[in-house]
Specification:
With 144 residues, this protein is an alpha+beta fold. It contains three helices and four strands, in the order H-E-H-E-H-E-E. The termini are far apart.
Length: 144
Amino acid sequence: MSARRGFWHLTIVLSLLIQPSAAWPQKRQVPAPQPTFTIFFGWNSATIPSRYKDVVAQAAMNAKNLMDLRGWVEVRGYVDTSMSEQRSVTLSENMGKAVCDELIRDGLDPNRVTYSGQGKTQLLKQTPDGVREPINRRVEIRIQ
């Protein structure tokens, strides 16, 4: 019986000695790269605001890290309800193209980036026609 107790005592002591210490280097958990990004635009503009250039650059870097041989990036432009249907589709396409071109300048393969203009569909904030709503004027980048 004493040998058994000695064995358990030794096991407990060893387990306490082997426990990682706060001073020991620990593996850092790195969060997974973000797969979606949103860039907001000014009214009636397809120019990427300067404060969002870093967001596009971060999206390009994450796309390079996330995409495998079959991966691709989808860029979709959306606008608010303040303009005609035809103008909204054209502007949202131009917004998507501006972000697509920036992603390519940041090093993405042009064959793996697509863009489209969605016009006044998928509003983040529902508004009646003719309303300028900044949150609805955006481009979404999705890394697939």
